[in-house]
Amino acid sequence: MTFDLFDNLDDATPATPPSEPLADGAVVLRGIARPDAEALLADVHAITIAAPWRHMITPGGLKMSVAMTNCGHAGWVTDAGGYRYDPIDPLSGQLWPAMPASFRHLATTAAAQAGFAGFEPDACLINRYEPGTRLSLHQDRDERDFNAPIVSVSLGLPAIFLFGGMRRADPPQRVRLAHGDVVVWGGPSRLAFHGVAPLADGDHPLLGRLRINLTFRKAL
Ligand code: MD3
Ligand code: FE
Q1: Which atom from ligand 1 is nearest to the alpha carbon of 125?
Q2: Number of domains within the chain
């Protein structure tokens, strides 16, 4: 047996996992959050003690099936008054919890791998799905600067992500997003319609019957 000190510099064994282009500006980094999953989930738990999970009400009066919370300098909220980013959690009347270092590090590393060096997220929306929970097709356009990408991190049960086009009627492609998958949505993909199909039941070793998704944004 011989050991090659330079193994990691070999072209056949890249130091970074392969990135898979999904669409113009959208890159999937399969499994890159797996090594951090326990730390990320401990931080999610701490956030939800100060800013509990809640089912927000859309301006149309519908209760969302996805439970949400936020961390960072602003949080995405919806209520009878509309959609907005708010520095204050309306439930607690306090600032949202700070963005943990584990979150920020993963988001900036993933963005840089996808060609968005210098991404500085100021908001992280945290979504919790139970079996049957879905997110209908929408665009994310409440952020100030669409030049910044959105970075999403999937944890727990796998989901079928629906990735549409620039018009709501464009037929979406279905992409399976599993535990540890990170997707960077920039460029022309930034304003694409997207959603999540009803979550299939299952039993994940870390999260049981849940899926948790983190989306990092430059909102302000
Ligand atoms: C493509 N969340 O929070 S993450 C959302 O799985 C949201 O919880 C979904 O859509 C979830 O707004 C999807 C992937 C994602 C997030 C934002 C995007 C894809 C995107 C913004 C633009 C284009
Ligand atoms: Fe979205």
Answers
A1: 3
A2: 1
